[in-house]
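Input record (one chain):
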Amino acid sequence: MSLKRALPDQARATTNHVLVVNNFPLVFDGLPDSAYVREAQIVQSSSRPNSTAPLPFSSPTLWRKVKAGTFPKPIKLSERITAWNVGEIRAYLANIANQAGGT
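The corresponding structure, as predicted from the sequence alone:
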């Protein structure tokens, strides 16, 4: 399922990288590489303490990494909707894992 359209305000994060939109769970690990996810779906937040976002850092850190060029740049889906490509996030995470593993 592609998230190329705007997600409604009823979206909420749960455990195991699951985002629930209108009572329909979307698992980050199960999304295709061509899907798009929004900031709230990928970073940790004190306002969502029970969520397990795939990125272990906050929104300000995400934007610092984007500005520094160490994290993929988002795209604008509309005037008020910014999203990241799932495949690019997975490639970033794989690169970090390879660096940590010494390869």
